[in-house]
Amino acid sequence: MEIAWEIASEKEWRLDAVLFFVFEKSEETLPGLKSFLNGTGSWLTNTPALSDFKGKRNEVAVFYAPSGDGAVPRVVVAGLGPIEKFEKDMLRSAAAFALRKCRDMGIARAGIPLSALEDLPCGPPDCLREIVTGAVTGLHCYTGLKTKNSEPPKAPDVLLLLSPARPEELLAEAVALARADAAGIILARDLTIGPANRVTPKFLAERAAELASKFGFRIETMDIQAARSIGMGAFAAVASGSAEPAYMVTIEHAPPGTENDDPIVFIGKGITFDTGGISLKPSAKLEEMKHDMAGAASVLGTLEAIGRFGLQKRVIGILPCTENMPGGKAYKPGDVLRSYSGQTIEVISTDAEGRLLLCDALAYAAGKFKPALMVDIATLTGACIVALGKEIAGVLANSEDLARFTCAAGAKVGERFWALPLWDSYFEGLKSDVADMKNVGDRSGGAIVAGVFLKQFVPDGVPWAHLDIAGTAWAEKDTGALPRGATGFGVRTLFEIARTWASKKE
Ligand code: BES
Ligand code: ZN
Ligand code: MN
Fold this sequence. Notes:
By secondary structure, this protein is α/β, with parallel strands linked by helices. The protein is built from 14 helices and 20 strands.
């Protein structure tokens, strides 16, 4: 579906359907509709059809113009729920529902009047960004592996943004941001939902190479022998049980003039399947462990967004990619690994593999790039799901300021984060008799302990945040704009962090 501006007055609209977003009914006229009802939509005023519509969340209704009345044959209204409970993701999901309705009706040209956004609480640019993101991502489905009835339903040809005058800069930028968000989210979702026999470490490395050639990023793909030879003993240990070749991929976006800036580094956990290794997981829902590369997918999605948007910042993505398998050469509980940082780690559980990839990637990034900021993102602990549930991701950061900044960046784009503490006392449980630390402690505070483990590999002075998306990367049921399965969670927040970190300083 194309997104295009249409500079036209109401009378000049040539559409199959015009879309409005409205709050759950108060006594007043539905706010967004007002000017339309006073103009070419007067046929709809005071009709029972309109008063039957309640404006509940994601409720969608279609009203048909009496033949010959008005230039637009259909009015699609989507409900946002009560105004007091408004949050941005309601716009996203209402847009998704409205566009799916248009698709089901086989509509070619749908349009949204910008005037209708003026009554919404978050301001026209932010509203527009949410709507366009929801519309595009809401129409996307992963159908590539079906051989029957596999034609994806045909989306509308174009979503027109209707405005009587040329849009101001901020609105144009909002659409560019939304396009970038949507492309990034879709990439991340497709990679994450893809099965592990297709989405292998090699496949991720190839997609990274594709991105690099599309946007002119620099890319370096280190195979596992190379990684081992430079000392990445923890990453190499995790890879050793798998027959699939493993890779540490580094992608760098450095637009001309930024090459010498201290970069923002994003590191994504890329376990393409997590069996648990020798500490084998139980088989219930094991198929879902194909999504253990959602962190890597969200970093690639972020780079897609950054490339599309043309962000003028130096940003580096690092993706340690491997399976976690119990092969004959697999690493074992009790093994002691020498990490890239030189610190030694006693393996207690081979199922706590994510932190072993990340600890080498963090130490490598800090040593090689002098980062202005490092953020890692990972489906790291079931304990984070226990603590925060499936809709909120955990943040562990080495300064309170950065934790706050991360939560605020998420809130700005409609992703929820909550900070957990990173006190050093949590290291007690990781003390080992034979090595510098163990890779797990007892079960208590598991998400925090994982964060404290990672902290050992981040040099003092490097701002660092760890995002635990174990709960939010995968949805068991449809929610709002998103169908069940991969959510692409994190893409929008990382993109927002990349856009705003440099200008943050208080
Ligand atoms: N990939 C899992 C965490 C996970 C669980 C992600 C559920 C998404 C949904 C991770 O590698 C893992 O197995 N973590 C263990 C850590 C434990 C051994 C300390 C866990 O959470 O049980
Ligand atoms: Zn894992
Ligand atoms: Mn695991």
